[in-house]
Write a structure and sequence with these properties.
Strand order of the largest sheet: 3-2-1-6-5-4
CATH architecture of the largest domain: 2-Layer Sandwich
Low-confidence stretches: none
Largest sheet: 6 strands, antiparallel
Strand content: 15-25%
Number of helices: 15
Number of domains: 4
Structural class: alpha+beta
Distance between the termini: 35 Å
CATH class of the largest domain: Alpha Beta
Shape: flat
Order of helices and strands: HHEHEEHEEEHEEHEEEHHHHEHHEEHHEH
Radius of gyration: 30 Å
Helix content: 40-55%
CATH superfamily of the largest domain: PAS domain
Amino acid sequence: MKDIVFAVNVLYSGAARMLPDVESLSDPEGLETALTDIASTAAEFADRVTDGISYYCRLNAELAGPRAGFLYSRSTTDTSYRQIDTTDLSLYESGDSHIRWYELAADSDGPLWVEPYDSPIGNDLIISYEIPWRSADGTFIGVVGFDMSFSSLLRTLENVVPYESGFAGLVSADGTQLYITADGAVSVTAVVDSVREQLAEPAPETVGYVVIGNEPIYHTWETLSNGMRLLITVPGSSVDARCSRLILLILSAGLILLAVFLFVIVIFTGRITGPLRRLNEAARHLADGDASLQLTAHGQDEVAELTRSLSRMSERINIALKEANTRANRDGLTGVKNKAFYLEYVEQLQQRLKEQSFGYAVVMMDINYLKRVNDTYGHDAGDELILAASRLICVTFAHSPVFRIGGDEFCAILENNDYEARDELMRQLRMGTGASSGVPGGMLSIASGISVHPAESTREYDEIFREADWSMYENKRRMKAGRM
């Protein structure tokens, strides 16, 4: 669901900026331009929303008319969105489930998840994440949002099978509605009936149980980001069977370890107690992931040979770990740092900011026309275009970390000297745009945007990133329109 939240936050930033007040709704030409720009931005993000089926922007029906806004939708089998007619809000009475999403937004002051409701354009249940915005005097201006099929969320529950015979279900925030995919999950329904009032709490402090027939049914739940409860139930017989197997396994392992220990004590007492103690300590270090230990072996007996073998193993593991860490943090095509390393770097950056504030800038870059090159000349040519863009970006930001965070997206985080020289570096990057990429049929074209976090700023990194991303897509639209 994080991709939906991110996409709607970006749409909200643009919509609130372009249509800030009631006056902006009264200019037909300006209103049409603003809606076109907002829809264009939404289209850029739509494919990133994994289970999205529609996105929309609806304006205050009383100020702009019952159909004002736009709606794009796709079926579960389509890969592309198409614009369809918006819902005529005047056709429904207040409180109708088909317009609940609009009425909730009009009464809300912030982001909200809308619990499952009947789709106005289909027969499926959908859930929505939306953000309304208001003018400075508090007047409701409009709402932007993304919809996803509720059935796709339910399908994920099919893989949630606690123990061998447990069940999972989704319960509405008020505890009145139960959604479940497993047939015959009587235990889930019975548990909901027994703890309906307790479900108002975000999560229980301990695992509870209810007795159905003669068997206890253990249960717990967790509150999801949309306010619904993920309820897990497990029959007592399954828990008992698992515990019995675990106890048997522990006892068997204990007997085996005891036999080995007694054998070692009887055979090797005294002569190898010290070396074995050092070997045991080294083995614990290896088990904990520390392959940097140093072992020294004396003599030619079995313990000395085992010590040398463990030392060689430690060296090989250490080399393999270093190589694996390098590969795990690098993009396979370009060699720059990948998204996994980017997320780790951002976490470290935020931790450093808590200790001491400093200035930095986030630069977002997107390769233009990559899809056209892939479709026309093939993916090998597309890879060459990505490599050409990566080389230009790395040369420009030679003293800053560069990350490939998407198929055609790169990010650089500037600090110290690069942060101070950010304007010159952006000029150099844009001068490089237009150079030959070495790919048949085109020049190198990179859209870019930058957002700055001065040392005295208290803004969070996510806000800086969204601002840079929005700036990059603004630059991308201007480049495509031929104004740059």
